[in-house]
Amino acid sequence: MPSRPPGILLASGWPVSKVCRSLRRRHKFDLINFLRERYDERFFQPIQLLRNAVGSHQGYGFAMMALCSLLVESIQCCRDGLPSTNTRELRNLAQYAPPPIYDVPRSERKTGPAAFRDFFAHFSSLFPDLDGEEFYRNIRNGLLHQAQTKNRWTIRVDSARLCEPTNRVINRDLFADRLRDAFEAYLTELRTSPRDSDIWRKARRKIWWLIRLSL
Predict the structure, then answer these.
(1) Which residue among 35, 66, 125, 197 has its CA within the 20 to 30 Å range from the CA of 185?
(2) What is the torsional sign of CA 3, 85, 124, 66?
(3) Residue 58 pLDDT
(4) How far is it between the farthest Cα atoms of the chain?
(5) Is the pLDDT of residue 20 over 60?
């Protein structure tokens, strides 16, 4: 791995050198704490600020759901140990000369639609009535590429259910709450799994790539 600029923080209190040390030692609880701090700063705190902001009922849902869409893909990439779901970027991984334990076999690579499908399938009890590929096409792609939802999907704050597929409605607040639950469930799975388990192999691989692509 190239020399590490000392000023890079991957999360508050987590310079690259500290994350590398925890990764090298395969220290479970340090790495879990790192992930929690990073995701709180990058995702959950901004989502909460938008949710609590004055006037948030008048259109902040797009910003919240855009962050939520990034969060879905990021959590699934942790579960899969993937640095990207972009096919071209995955083809170019060899240029970074990853050690064999952090190389991503072709059989484990995944596209965006597959990542969203697998996320909502794994956490189906938290996200009933949500189809991952439909969410990817109409919410994620719409917001991130055109700054609007597609195919008559709407984002609301006053709907009784998290998702109403017939009316094509998503409750942004309930969705954000369930994402927090999904993330905590993932951290619990890490905490209770052996260091040599598949979920830890992939989590460490994801963290290695996070470091590598941040330099």
Answers:
(1) 66
(2) positive
(3) 80
(4) 53
(5) yes
Nearest Cα to 50, choosing from 172, 155, 169, 141?
172
Torsion, Cα of 59, 179, 73, 113 (10° steps): -80
Answer for the pair 83, 104: CB distance below 8 angstroms, yes or no.
Answer: yes
Q: Are 208 and 102 in contact (CB under 8 A)?
A: yes
Instruction: Please report the DSSP string for 148-172 in residue order.
Output: S--TT-EEESS-SSSEETTTTEEEH
Q: Does pLDDT of 2 surpass 80?
A: no
- pLDDT, tens digit (0-9, with 9 covering 90-100), for 172-202: 999 999 999 999 999 999 999 999 999 999 9
Whether the model pTM is above 0.85: yes
CB 47 within 8 A of CB 65: no
Looking at residue 13, the DSSP 8-state letter turns out to be T
DSSP reduced 3-state for 200: helix
Strands 169-171 and 163-164: antiparallel
